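Severity: low
Component: inverse-folding endpoint
Summary: output formatting inconsistent between runs
Steps to reproduce: submit the following C-alpha cells with default settings.
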C-alpha cells in the first residue's frame, strides 16, 4: 500500500509499505479520509516528544476514518462495511509509525476480543460511525472528542474567563465547544485576521491580534481564570503570567515544540497552576462520543463548518506545504 512518510531529513514522500495483516482480534480497514493536524507538523519538524530522530522515517497521520474490509476470527464489534474511527498502522522493521493513518489501509482492534484490561488503549476509541454521517467529514470526530475530553479534564466552569491562544482547527473547536457549554467570557488570540473572524463567529466575544496583555487587563484588571495554549508555543505560558488572576491556570494543550521551557513568573501572582494535556486518554476520548453526536443530531454542530480544504491523497505533500505556510484556515482533509 501507499503511505505518507516523514523522512529523516523532515521531507515528505509517498512510499510503498507493507499492507498490515489483521490478527484474530483486529479488523483491516480501507482508509476513506484522514485529517491534517498540528501534531503532524511537530512530527515533520522532528519536535514531537516520543519520536526521536532514530525512529524516522515515520508513517504520518492520526485522524483517520475507514471502512472495514476484513475481520479477524475473534472480532465481534465490527462487521464488513462498517465505517470506523482511528485506524492506525504499526511500525515495521524498516519504518517507524507516527500512528500511520495517512495510509491506504489500517488496523482497528476489537476491545471485546481481548481479556478484560488487556486491550490496547487505542481500542477504546476505535468507534463505529453511524451510517448516515459523511465518513470524510467525520474525521472531525477525532479533534472534537480530544478537545471535549480535554475540556472535561481541565475542569473549567461556564462562569470562568478564558483566553485562548491559537485559532486554528483545534482552537476553533475549543471556542465552539466552550460556547456550547455556556461559556460567554471567551477571548481569542491569533495573528491571522481570517482566523479571528472565524473565532468571533464560533463564540469568542473578544479577539485580539496585538497588545494582548493590555487589552485583556483593560477588560479584567484582576486577571482571567484561564489561559489556554492551543498552539504549543512557550511564549504563551510566559505571556499568561501577565494575564492570570490569583490561582489562575495555564492550560497547555498544544504540543510543545521543546521539552524544556523557562517560565518567567515574576509578573504572576503568588498562586497559579500549569496543567498540561497533550495526549488525551482514549477511554476519556471515547466517553465524549455520544455528546458530540448529540450536538450534531440537534444541529448545534455542523461538521462541514470546520473544514476549509480537501485534497486527494496524491496531493498530500502539496497539502502539507500549504499547511506549513499557514494557508489552511480550518481543517484540511486528505481523501483516499
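Observed output (run 2 of 3):
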Amino acid at each position: 500500500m501507499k503511505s505518507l512518510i516523514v523522512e529523516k531529513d523532515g521531507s515528505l514522500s509517498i512510499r510503498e509499505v507493507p499492507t498490515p495483516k489483521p490478527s484474530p482480534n483486529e479488523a483491516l480497514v480501507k482508509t476513506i479520509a484522514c485529517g491534517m493536524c498540528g501534531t503532524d507538523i511537530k512530527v515533520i519538524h522532528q519536535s514531537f516528544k516520543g519520536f526521536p530522530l532514530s525512529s524516522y522515517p515515520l508513517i504520518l497521520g492520526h485522524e483517520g476514518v475507514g471502512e472495514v474490509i476484513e475481520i479477524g476470527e475473534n472480532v465481534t464489534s465490527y462487521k464488513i462495511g462498517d465505517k470506523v474511527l482511528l485506524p492506525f498502522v504499526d511500525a515495521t522493521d524498516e519504518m517507524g509509525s507516527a500512528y500511520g493513518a495517512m495510509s491506504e489501509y489500517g488496523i482497528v482492534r476489537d476491545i471485546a476480543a481481548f481479556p478484560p484490561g488487556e486491550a490496547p488503549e487505542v481500542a477504546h476509541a476505535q468507534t463505529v460511525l453511524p451510517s448516515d454521517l459523511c465518513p470524510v467529514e467525520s474525521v472531525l470526530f477525532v479533534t472534537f472528542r480530544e478537545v471535549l475530553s480535554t475540556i472535561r479534564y481541565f475542569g473549567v466552569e461556564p462562569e470562568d474567563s478564558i483566553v485562548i491562544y491559537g485559532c486554528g482547527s483545534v482552537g476553533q473547536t475549543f471556542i465552539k465547544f466552550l460556547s456550547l457549554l455556556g461559556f460567554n467570557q471567551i477571548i481569542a488570540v491569533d495573528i491571522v485576521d481570517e482566523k479571528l473572524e472565524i473565532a468571533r463567529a464560533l463564540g469568542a466575544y473578544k479577539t485580539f491580534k496585538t497588545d494582548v496583555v493590555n487589552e485583556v487587563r483593560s477588560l479584567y484588571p484582576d486577571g482571567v481564570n484561564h489561559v489556554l495554549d492551543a498552539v504549543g508555543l512557550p511564549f504563551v505560558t510566559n505571556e499568561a503570567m501577565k494575564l492570570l488572576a490569583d490561582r489562575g491556570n495555564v492550560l497547555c494543550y498544544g504540543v510543545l515544540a521543546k521539552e524544556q521551557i523557562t517560565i518567567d513568573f515574576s509578573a504572576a501572582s503568588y498562586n497559579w497552576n500549569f496543567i498540561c494535556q497533550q495526549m488525551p486518554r482514549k477511554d476519556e476520548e471515547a466517553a465524549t462520543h455520544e455528546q458530540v453526536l448529540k450536538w450534531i443530531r440537534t444541529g448545534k454542530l455542523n461538521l462541514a463548518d470546520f473544514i476549509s480544504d480537501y485534497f486527494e491523497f496524491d496531493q498530500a505533500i502539496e497539502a502539507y506545504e500549504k499547511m506549513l505556510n499557514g494557508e489552511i484556515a480550518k481543517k484540511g482533509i486528505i481523501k483516499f
